[in-house]
């Protein structure tokens, strides 16, 4: 009760003070009525003061003991005026901007301020509702309560303030609709309601405000169409409606606003075309229509805007909107060419047309826009060359043409743009050399030429640009050495020369770039030692990135991976105190991992894999408390895993696979609570699996395969609730599989092959609905196969072979897709898909078939079976001998001694032949029948006696000899039938010979069709094409690439294919881009088939996810639909970038999927990151069964979706063969091999 009375007690106290002060201040002869009016104003002001928390003591002067508000000293923020008719001095203005006032309004006596004309309290912290009592102030001309914490609705009573000319309630938290009563304020010239949470439609009554000059309604949640009646506001100079949810088209009636200078409708959901009447605004200087859903052509009438054709004499807009003359149409669906008429706008300073679907060339008429400062045409389908007329734009500071299909050379005239600060031309098809004339552009701060086809060397003249902060030249065809002159760029922050063909050594002069934050030289052919002088670089971090830098990580980094660097890792790199990413992977580095690297306190990622490093892993790495990733795999490291790794509480990835590490797995690893991926496979680790590893709460991938681990699988494995892959293959683990493994709901792969596990297979594994791979072969499991395993609907790979399982094989659910090889070498199993034994009704468990296992006296069975085996051996010998004599008379050039009869298998009913027929049809595999040779053997033309025309592939012996999995794998391939795949008709298999039989294809090879030449009797669909008017005979790939560059990529697809799904355009475009990558002129840039499959799977998952999201969107309310549509419009640029990043993302994904068996990751390069927060794509497992490499990646798509400002950290990988001894592929004679690879025409 006391607290409730406190304000009233304070007011009463103030009253006594006022009365006391008034008796001293008021003149004895003054009119008592007038004196009472003065006291009322003082009372009202003190009431306001009592409601406010004056933390900054701005209102100290508001003290009646020191004088009245209108006295000689006056009060801060108060202005008074003497009424000549009454002689009374009264308060007419209260102005207290940014006075740090806190609190609300206590306005019981605010009506006493009857003469108040201006109330301005902007930039404070006033809260609560806008008081209705303000409507009493009928003399109010200006009301400004902007930038406070006010909430609630706008009082309708404000509509009664007939004298009000300026109303500003912006930047609060006001809700509800805009009151139609505002339309009664006929003298209103300025209405600021922006940056609130207002909803509903724009009231038509606002169109009655005929005196209005500025209408600011942006940054709210307004919906509905733009009222056409706004065209009646003849005096309107500024109309800002951006960042709402407005729909419909742009009203043509807006062209009636003859005084309009700024029209800003950005970031809505407006549709339709831009009305041609847009060119009839007499004084329009600012036109922002970006981030909508506008479509159609850019009207040529836009070039008729008078005030943009020449300089206007006056600029009254600055009173309300201060901005340069600009046209911004980016992030829409605008199509067609850029109208040449835009070149008439000679006073335009900013032209932004990015993120549309504009096509055609860049009009040379743009060179007439002599006032242009900023030209942004990126993310379109523009083609053709960059017009030399661009050089006429003498004031141009930003040239942004990236992510188009521009071709040709960069014109040397660009060197005349002396004001240019930013040259942004990435992701085009620009060719030729980098112009040396760029040295004249002394104002340049950024040059971005990434992802083009530039050739030649890097001009040394680039080292003479004193203000250059970023130089991006990655993914081109640049050759030669890195110019030492680049060391003179003392302002340089980012240097990215990755993915080129640069050679020679790393210049020591780069150590002079003391401001460098990122040094990326990955994926070149650099050789020699890493200069120790690079240790002088501190790699500082910067709070902001250069303008237009979209895909640069906010981390400092040194990436020298994927080269031929040799020698030791310089200990001096430990002096790079601010370095966060160090990637030296995929080189020829030797020596040890320096202890000094433990001094890098900011290090987040250490990648040294695929080198020849030896010695122990330094325990000092435990001092790098910020480490997120340690990748030391595929080296020759020895010793134990440091216990100090337990101090790395932020560690997410630990990969020490394929080394020679010994000792036990330290239990301290269990302290790394952020660990997502643990790869310790292919070492010599001993001991048991520490139970502490089961306490890692977010572990998703764990591989400890191919070690010497003993003991049991930890029974608390179910604590790893997010585990997706567990690979313990090739150890000496014993005991049973813990039944609680079935509680790991997200488990995708469980690989326990080649251990000593026993007992029954737990039925709880049937609860793993996401399980795709289950490999339990080569163990000692007994009992029957649990029928519950059939519930694993996602199961794609199963191997239960080489165990002691008994009973009938379940034939339900997912088990229907598995063949006999998944169950072989279990003597007690019966039933399909095994050919024998069959389960009888009297023996459903298969115990009779397991009789052999029940006999413990093996000598007794040897006595019984011995004679039978001997007889069988003699019979086999006789048959083989007869077969050999049968083959002797055949007159062929092959060696009969090598031709041991084998097994002939056919997959089609009408195909009958034997080995003799094949030998005769190929002339004993004579070169006259040779069709071609490949890495796995030769292909021969064969016509059988029955007229069948075959292509016979004879595999090289060294590739297939002694491979027990050959027959199983080829049998699987023979079962695959698809109209786009050449079917396998059959095969022949013996110890010395392996043959594959296909239908003969008369139109040549796929290489002939794709690249032209050598096509005999081609069908019309495979004939070489004539391109353009030149009459040039070109291949399919040349034609598709040319059409793609001309913006006609969709015309290359079959119209029937497009008509099946009109919305499939983006998918078809991505497929075409993949095809162009597969047929690249550079063999090193062509993805492997595994990568292609991985990309297709990635695309399929993306489509399924989008379809599911679309279904969920149908359940939302209309408002949510509109909000989603708005967000979709705002993020078109990000979506387009996603499409460009698909091929980058699938590199990481597919390479992880290829890491298996006789294939290993050889080039894993942490090279690129895009935007802000990182999200790493990590390989999550590998295994091999029957010669088929399989792997699962579960991290890439389970993370956050790409969004504006997000980052995608991608590991690029190349795959090389691994020898049986597990040694690294030597890089001897790499220069000759590199040249041979580039000159090869092998498809």
TrEMBL record:
Ranges for region Disordered: 1115-1134, 1221-1243
Biased composition (Basic and acidic residues): 1118-1134, 1221-1236
Binding site for ATP: 953
Protein kinase domain location: 925-1243
Cellular-component GO terms for this entry: plasma membrane
Keywords (A to Z) from UniProt: ATP-binding, Leucine-rich repeat, Membrane, Nucleotide-binding, Repeat, Signal, Transmembrane, Transmembrane helix
A UniProt-annotated Pfam family: LRRNT_2
Protein name (database record): Protein kinase domain-containing protein
Protein's cellular compartments: Cell membrane; Membrane
